[in-house]
TrEMBL record, chain A:
Domain of life: Bacteria
Subcellular location: Cell membrane
Matching PANTHER family: ABC TRANSPORTER PERMEASE PROTEIN YPHD-RELATED-RELATED
Name by which UniProt lists this protein: Sugar ABC transporter permease
Spans through the membrane: 32-51, 63-83, 89-106, 113-134, 140-160, 181-202, 233-255, 267-300, 312-331
UniProt keyword list: Cell membrane, Membrane, Transmembrane, Transmembrane helix
InterPro entries in alphabetical order: ABC_transp_permease (IPR001851)
Main location: membrane
Topology versus the membrane: Multi-pass membrane protein
Pfam families reported in the protein's UniProt record: BPD_transp_2
Keyword Cell membrane in record: yes
UniProtKB/TrEMBL annotation, chain B:
Keywords assigned by UniProt, alphabetized: Signal
Annotated ranges, domain Periplasmic binding protein: 43-293
InterPro entries to which the protein is assigned, alphabetical: Peripla_BP_I (IPR028082), SBP_2_dom (IPR025997)
Family statement drawn from the similarity comment of this UniProt entry: Belongs to the bacterial solute-binding protein 2 family.
Signal peptide: 1-24
Keyword Transmembrane helix attributed: no
Designated name of the protein: Sugar ABC transporter substrate-binding protein
Domain of life of the organism encoding this protein: Bacteria
Main location: other
Lineage: Bacteria, Pseudomonadati, Bacteroidota, Cytophagia, Cytophagales
């Protein structure tokens, strides 16, 4: 697991201006991180394919993708946040709250399936907006604020569910995480759709540019007329919405709303973003990188299960990869200076 | 912190109310020798765990019936916090303490401290290495034996089994595994194909089962999951892969979800651990000790195998 202290953004060079920030992120996109991690990912896949013939089969890859989808959705959300120089530790708790809320409305013959979906998403968005509100109003570091809301969220999930899992969900609802369309599991479809949406939002819109600008250099971004608070509100709300979606998919996949679901998910999601080249000091990162980061984590966990390696080693391997990714990132940053 | 403050203040309030009501009825059963209402403090492993919540609920119920003041606090899986909670019970001079230990070794100081303060302490559900005044619970080794024995009989003593562990190193994980291994030794033709932890978690159990299906496919004849959550995850993965009718799944705890699954026939069996009896026996023992009456030093509540045949008496 990553050392959380390293996620607190460090001081940024003061001499950069907005246009330079824009330039540098473009070059860094093509930089070492994304390609480096892609190469590492391919290398690991090849190694796994060589040791176990079970790895490179359509059915296994489908399963890896399905298993990765929840972490990837969370990682997309937290990538937005980290790019603006923030952090969100409450996403795991949001998964629990939104999952429980969705489950409460998902019993058969009560509401149409749209209601639990909407309620889960809305809960996530509200939770995220609350994070954003506290962070922008109080000026307290997001690490602290979301550490607080992480605990609050867990408590909220327990209150709503009275400490017990909520089961007996409708078939329509269970289709979201367990169904298939044209042989493709729904979580994979959701993953692809939201990967495209998030990528476009980040790379092709003004809002996306603002996110990079805010994370690259707050002062410069403010000087050029960007409303820091608005951008931050948007990213935390987005992150909450994606956590809500992940909560719905998870609840539907395991066909029960669990108040203790999602514990530690924030670390996997942040790890995926960091492995994928999102810099903890803000201003850099791509959704493609994050997706590869999430895939890498998923493939390693799947591969080690196939090889029947105990999960103790799994954790050690994951830790090494995270540190490796951050070291790579800091070398890259120094080179670019 | 806030929780315990509000809890305490509401308890004080309730105590005042009761003082008003109870005047004149000196033969009330939940009173100590000086005629004051008995106070029992209980610290629970985790109120996020359904089984533990059930034990605590039953304790509350029994305490209400017996007119005993029960203070329940949540240790949130932290042995350190648990020891501190017991220290505060000692400072409050409660009449008895019920300890639902977080950990075998790390929760032991709680027992030692209570014993030193001459306050009776009753361990419920699991053990500590320090010996308490009394123990109420079940022998987890037995549950592992029951589950694996059922699998062995179903398979006719021959076949491949996979086992899902709980969080490694916890008493329940160690003992349930021990019980299962004991039975496996008696059946040389049964092979433990793979074993791995899924951390008591349904989503993790499902992912692990999916991966096992990939690596072993049709070779798996049975799954033993050390709790129902993981067992339910395995059932879901097997059903999705169209293999459920070929693979036996047995787990432990008999949570409501698992009972429903047994009813539907997706889960073959679960092992019932009696939360109600553990909770009520713990309070009963605490009262007896506090009042200086004779008591059982060790109350073992047996596990029961739940299959479709005897399901009815476990569904309420």
């Amino acid at each position: 697991m990553p050392n959380l202290c390293s996620m607190i953004p460090t001081q940024k060079p003061k001499s950069t201006y907005l246009n330079q920030v824009g330039e540098s992120y473009k070059t860094r996109l093509r930089g070492l991180s994304t390609y480096g991690i892609l190469l590492a990912f391919i290398a690991i896949c090849i190694v796994l394919a060589l040791i176990t013939p079970r790895f490179l089969t359509i059915s296994n890859l489908t399963i890896v993708l399905t298993q990765v989808s929840i972490n990837a959705l969370l990682a997309f959300g937290v990538t937005f946040v980290i790019i603006t120089g923030g952090i969100d530790l409450s996403i795991g708790s949001m998964v629990a709250v939104t999952g429980v809320v969705a489950a409460m409305f998902a019993h058969p013959d009560t509401y149409p399936v749209g209601v639990p979906l909407l309620m889960g998403l809305l809960t996530g968005l509200l939770f995220g907006a609350f994070n954003g509100l506290v962070i922008t109003r109080s000026k307290v570091h997001p690490f602290i604020v979301t550490l607080g809301t992480m605990t609050m969220g867990r408590g909220l999930a327990l209150i709503l569910s009275k400490g017990r899992p909520i089961s007996n969900l409708s078939d329509e609802f269970n289709f979201i995480g367990g169904g298939q369309v044209l042989g493709i599991p729904m979580p994979i479809i959701i993953l692809i759709v939201f990967f495209i949406i998030c990528s476009v939002l980040l790379q092709k819109t003004v809002l996306g540019r603002y996110m990079y600008a805010v994370g690259g250099n707050e002062q410069a971004a403010r000087a050029s007329g960007i409303s820091l608070n608005k951008v931050k509100m948007v990213v935390y709300t987005l992150c909450g919405g994606l956590a809500g979606l992940a909560g719905i998919v998870l609840t539907s996949r395991i066909t029960t709303g669990q108040p203790n679901a999602g514990a530690g998910f924030e670390l996997d999601a942040i790890a995926a973003a960091i492995i994928g080249g999102t810099s903890t000091s803000g201003g850099t990162g791509t959704m493609t990188g994050t997706l590869i980061g999430a895939l890498l984590i998923g493939v390693i966990s799947n591969g080690l299960d196939l090889l029947n390696v105990t999960s103790y080693y799994q954790q050690v391997v994951m830790g090494i990869i995270i540190i490796g990714a951050v070291v790579l990132d800091s070398w890259n940053q120094n080179r670019n200076k | 912190m806030m929780k315990s403050v509000t809890l305490l203040s509401s308890l004080v309030f309730m105590a005042i109310l009761h003082m008003g009501c109870n005047q004149g009825s000196s033969s009330e059963q939940g009173q100590n020798s000086e005629g004051k209402k008995l106070v029992v403090g209980a610290t629970m492993l985790s109120m996020q765990n359904e089984f533990i919540v059930n034990v605590a609920d039953e304790m509350e119920k029994k305490a209400n019936e017996s007119n005993v003041e029960l203070i329940v606090v949540d240790a949130e899986r932290s042995p350190l916090k648990q020891v501190e909670q017991v220290e505060s019970f000692i400072a409050q001079k409660v009449d008895a303490i019920i300890l639902n230990p977080c950990e075998v070794e790390a929760s032991s100081p709680a027992v030692t401290k209570a014993m030193a303060a001459k306050i009776p302490i009753i361990n419920v559900n699991s053990a500590t290495s320090a010996k308490p005044t009394a123990f109420v619970g079940s022998d987890d080794v037995e549950s592992g034996r029951i589950a694996m024995k059922y699998i062995a009989e179903k398979l006719g003593g021959k076949g491949n089994v996979v086992m899902m562990h709980g969080l490694m190193g916890q008493a329940a994980q160690i003992q349930r595994e021990q019980g299962a291994q004991e039975i496996l030794k008696q059946y040389p033709n049964m092979k433990l194909l793979a074993h791995q932890t899924a951390g008591w978690d349904r989503a993790k159990g499902m992912a692990l089962m999916e991966n096992w299906i990939q690596s072993y496919g049709n070779q798996i004849n049975a799954v033993f999951a050390q709790n129902d959550e993981m067992g339910m995850g395995a059932v879901k993965a097997l059903t999705d892969a169209g293999l459920k009718n070929k693979v036996i799944v047995v787990s432990i705890d008999a949570i409501p979800d698992a009972l429903q699954a047994v009813k539907k026939g997706t889960l073959d069996a679960t092992v019932f651990q009696n939360a109600q009896q553990q909770g009520s026996k713990a309070i009963e023992t605490a009262i007896r000790i506090a009042k200086g009456e004779s008591y059982e030093k060790e109350t073992l509540i047996p596990f029961q195998l739940v299959t479709k045949e005897n399901l009815a008496k476990f569904l309420n």
